[in-house]
Amino acid sequence: MTQQVPSTEPELAGVRNFRDVGGLPTVDGRRVRHGVLFRSGHLAHATAEDTVFLSSLGLHTVFDFRNAADQKLEGPDVTLPGVRNVNLPLSDPADGAEFWKMVRDGDLEQLRSILADGKGADRMISSYRLIIKERTAEHSRVLRSLAEDSVPALMHCAAGKDRAGLSVAVTLLAVGVERDAIVDDYLKSNAKHRRYKVQRSGSSASAYSPEVMELLSPLFDARAEYLSAAFETVEETWGGVDPYLEQALGLTPEARERLRERLLD
Predict the structure, then answer these.
(1) Domain boundaries of the chain, sorted by first residue
(2) The domain defined by 19-263 carries CATH number 3.90.190.10
(3) Do residues 186 and 17 touch, judged by C-beta distance below 8 A?
């Protein structure tokens, strides 16, 4: 039996973007059960009080989608007693390391060359498309684990927006949540108190200048166009959600029904 969680969103001091995905409507009139699927940013900076709260959720599994560079930068997740931690990187091991060096060094010319004039948003759209196309094994493992035994579950990456956002979206698609509801939940990551904190030891005075922050904003935003690109990739590549789940993720109708039983009221 799933433990009840507070109806109000907790204010966690060291964990950004935490929320329960419960309550979202499905196309057939059901809703995602509260207390079975959570999402957040990384847990590396969780305070003692945060850890007590997270431990109270009755979690079975934490899915950590960060890569090696993220984990080196932020540190490992806090240990939650009795909770399984599964690391499934959804980006390459060193992805981001060189990029953040540019930010720390305040290398404006280089940042302009890769992010200005819409390039930042294009970079994000390409990343979302690539994850859907190339990380089918990882998403398959997540869905099959949830169908078998891994709930309640918490999904996170660094900011809890992109890699975790896509994994949550794929999960919600699999149980038939309305597309608009998936987008609405995704866009909640834009709230000021949820946004990723840029904590970099900038060696240059211009490291966090207004221009740098403006160039970075497409990377820190949750934009509907990003998630739409992921949905379009599913349609273009596999012809729809059902063949995507069956052919790309190997999710049988029986496993999909078990998933719905575990996640829906």
Answers:
(1) 19-263
(2) yes
(3) no
Asked if 40 and 156 count as a contact pair (C-beta separation under 8 A), the reply is yes
Q: How far apart are the first and last CA of the chain?
A: 13
Q: Record the tokens describing residue 171, joined without a space.
A: 């999960």
Contact 152, 180 (CB under 8 A): no
* More confidently predicted of 186 and 101: 186
The whole-number pLDDT of residue 193 equals: 64
**Rounded distance, CA 69 to CA 95, Å?**
7
How many C-beta neighbours within 10 Å does residue 13 have?
A: 12
pTM of the model: 0.90
Helix axes 179-187, 163-174, angle to 10 degrees: 160
CA distance 156 to 165: 8
Amino acid at residue number 48: A
One-letter amino acid of 41: G
Name residues whose C-beta falls within 8 Å of residue 130's C-beta, 6 or more positions apart in sequence. Answer: none
| pLDDT (tens digit per residue) in 12-39 | 999 999 999 999 999 999 999 999 999 9
Tokens 């690539």: give the residue: 130
